[in-house]
């Protein structure tokens, strides 16, 4: 049985990790709202969420939750055990998005000058990168899509980059077929989210080292490239990559 002081310190540390996780998810939701309102095109999964919302009674955020839930169920069938972070990722980002859109603090920028729309879209991707860095740092479980990606990698032996690319392209194609918003913003997301996460890592290490002490150790262990994002989401991805490189 744990001593009261030890139990309190353990609980406090875990609570802090949860707060950091939820703050990261909140930042991700703000970033998604910026890309959504810019009307420049969404990231692959948000294209799918938008397409689903156009053909169902679901809102954009609710569609995100439902799609995430389906991915978790598929993962369970493939013996992927979701972590706390996995479930909160599924629930909170969509929940936060709907609150943002309902409040309407950021208007639709579809008729705004192109430079304003581009700035909003780029800012959204940067915020998603920062949010992802915060979300990764507590290491409370991979996101639903990352867990599925890693399991498919193990089952098929296909490289992680190829597996993830196939999943993203499938989501994009299906979302586009359903009428989701695809455009220049989709390309900005595809090529910008990796560097944005790297910037998020730097910001945390430079300005918030106390909030995420494990992030520096994880980055020194797995490297500083955007590909290390997957390893930070789930330590097994680094081991898988090592096996494939042999």
Describe the structure.
With 246 residues, this protein is an all-alpha fold. The protein has one domain (18-134, 142-245). Helices cover 77% and strands 0% of the residues. It contains 11 helices and no strands. Helix 2 crosses helix 3 and helix 2 (44-55) packs parallel to helix 7 (160-177). It is globular and about 60 Å long. 46% of the residues are buried.
Notable characteristics:
mainly alpha, 246 residues
Radius of gyration: 18 Å
| Main sheet specs | none
CA distance, first residue to last residue:
44 Å
Q: Which word captures the global form?
A: globular
Give helix and strand order, one letter per element, not per position.
HHHHHHHHHHH
Structural class: mainly alpha
Low-confidence stretches: 217-246
Number of strands: 0
Whole-number total of structural domains: 1
> How many helices does DSSP assign?
11
Question: Helical residue percent?
Answer: over 70%
Could you give a quick summary of the protein structure above?
This protein has 246 residues and is an all-alpha fold. It has helices at residues 4-38, 44-55, 60-77, 84-103, 114-136, 144-156, 160-177, 184-207, 213-222, 228-233, 236-245.
């Amino acid at each position: 049985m744990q001593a009261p002081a030890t139990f309190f310190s353990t609980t406090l540390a875990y609570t802090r990790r949860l707060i950091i996780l939820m703050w990261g998810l909140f930042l991700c939701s703000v970033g998604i709202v910026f890309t959504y309102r810019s009307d420049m095109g969404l990231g692959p999964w948000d294209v799918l969420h938008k397409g689903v919302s156009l053909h169902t009674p679901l809102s954009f955020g609710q569609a995100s939750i439902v799609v995430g839930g389906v991915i978790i169920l598929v993962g369970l069938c493939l013996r992927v055990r979701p972590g706390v972070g996995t479930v909160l990722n599924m629930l909170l980002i969509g929940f936060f998005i709907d609150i943002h859109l309902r409040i309407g603090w950021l208007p639709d920028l579809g008729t705004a000058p192109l430079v304003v729309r581009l700035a909003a879209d780029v800012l959204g991707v940067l915020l998603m990168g920062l949010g992802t860095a915060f979300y990764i740092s507590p290491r409370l479980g991979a996101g639903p899509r990352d867990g599925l990606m890693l399991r498919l990698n193990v089952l098929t032996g296909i490289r992680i980059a190829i597996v993830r690319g196939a999943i993203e392209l499938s989501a994009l194609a299906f979302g586009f077929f359903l009428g989701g918003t695809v455009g220049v913003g989709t390309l900005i997301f595809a090529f910008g989210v990796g560097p944005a996460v790297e910037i998020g890592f730097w910001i945390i290490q430079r300005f918030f080292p106390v909030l995420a002490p494990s992030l520096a150790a994880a980055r020194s262990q797995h490297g500083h490239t955007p590909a290390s994002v997957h390893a930070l989401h789930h330590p097994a991805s680094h081991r898988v990559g090592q096996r494939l490189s042999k």
